[in-house]
Design goal:
This is DUF3791 domain-containing protein. The chain is mainly alpha-helical. It has one domain. The chain has four helices and no strands. Helix 1 packs across helix 2. The N and C termini lie far apart (32 Å).
Length: 72
């Protein structure tokens, strides 16, 4: 299922802001990480209706991906 592009952009912005806040990093760093993440790819392509998940869930998924990347 494809989401409305404007609503999706707003959701991306909220997720990036929350991720930056939780990680204590700049919005630029958070945005760069987000656009290279698997979470973004899944949301953009509408796979598993990831764009329908809550912002908090998506931030947690992004955090998990970030941690796995740092450890691996």
């Amino acid at each position: 299922m494809k989401a409305n592009p404007i609503l999706l952009q707003k959701k991306y912005a909220r997720i990036v802001e929350r991720f930056a806040s939780k990680r204590h990093i700049s919005l630029d760093e958070a945005l760069s990480y987000f656009y290279h993440s698997e979470v973004y790819q899944l949301m953009r392509e509408g796979i598993s209706d990831m764009h329908c998940m809550s912002d908090e869930y998506l931030v947690e998924e992004l955090e998990e991906e970030y941690q796995l990347g740092k450890e691996g």
